Amino acid sequence: MDSSAGWPAPGPAHGEADVRRSESAGPTAETRSHITARQQWYRGEQPKSRLRSDSKGTPHIRGRRGGRVGEPDAALWFRLVERDRRILALLHEHKVLTTNQIAAIEFSSIRRAQDRLRQLRELGVVFAFRDSYSTGGTSQTRYALGYRGARVVAAQRGEKPPVASAYADRLERLGLWPKLSHQLGVNDFFCGLAAYARTRPDAALTQWWPEKACTEFFWHGDIKLRPDAYGCWDEQGRRVRFFLEHDTGTEPLSKVVSKLGDYSRFGTDVFGVLLFSVHSSLRERNLRSAMRQQLGYEKPGFVIATASRDHGHPDGPAGPIWAVWSFQDQVQERRRLAELPQRGPRIAQHVSPRWAPVQRSGMGSPRHHHDRTGHGRREAMGMNIVPLPQKPPVGDTKPLRDNGSEHNEWHYNRIGNRTKSWDFSGHVRYVSGAEGDRLRGELAAVIRDLLDWAATQHAEQVDDQEAA
pTM of the prediction? Predict the structure, then answer.
């Protein structure tokens, strides 16, 4: 794997930039002679024929991409299988992935991943580039979403396609991005979890949010969290939600521990635990010492766990490498990721059956609906969805009444379609303090999920009506 990624894991087209050492899309003259007719059909090439047609039928007006005017190039759609679309969705959300990372998520071997990625590069849906080292050699191939791939994703999501020249500039900035190694390290963390989950039927990576999505979602007033990622890990019936801070050792420790202030004021314990992944054991010891100086004997109000990436454990980030932070100088024990304290709302994960192959591979269920409201983006990142078995009930809700006791009484009467009816009642109990904050946070998370689910269902109905 790339030297920038710490976790072990099992010519430019139109609108693409020539960044660093970009790989050519077309086969060489030496290999072209060995291409079979079946390969020529798959690549859209026409075999040479001895017969020539001189018939002059009615000509068709052709567009810039070979199709008729007003029609897109539909040949690309037939060549993309479901796995290819998942790869494009991952590149759209997480910007850049290496060959090993993509292979860990979607393929059974590195060789198969290389072959398919080469074909996707020739189709123009992915963009490949490498780093050239001053000591000689190159890095592992990095893949980003190509221009034609960006158009496919935009069409799936009902968004305006990017401009070719602007997208080429974007790819150039990505290739020379100063935080490229850091982003690859963050992605490698989650790809390591996904690779482990593919070998365990009781494990799954059900959420993987990039930094941009976290910044848009986790804010309150003037407090805005900027974690490197947010995820949810399921294993053996336990669900651990976490914020990830991926440290490469380039920032001073004073700047790293200064982030604890925002996490303390935000109420992080409502959403998950905070993970610090550092590059070495020495860096981990120094980080824990700096946190002790920053916090003193004051409890942060949320769970913090640290781990170093030089542990060499075969289970990767899912293994027993995490040490929960405490005031003690020495680490008493190391826990598995699933053994960390469970924080956040207890919501059953809902996965659409059509995305079952993605779930078996250990990834969250990326669903790409026509998003008119802006809420479907969260669902595309694997957000928990609370399913409703049917439409909202038709009935009336009786107002609260004072029965003379300490707690008020509530009633709800649901009238069925025929002769059935249901009457629900209960008492209102007021909760305050820490317990009230916890319940309020869980209720807010449930309401957000319900609103996202309702917005997605509405968008699907609109799409079905337009298609009809």
Answer: 0.64
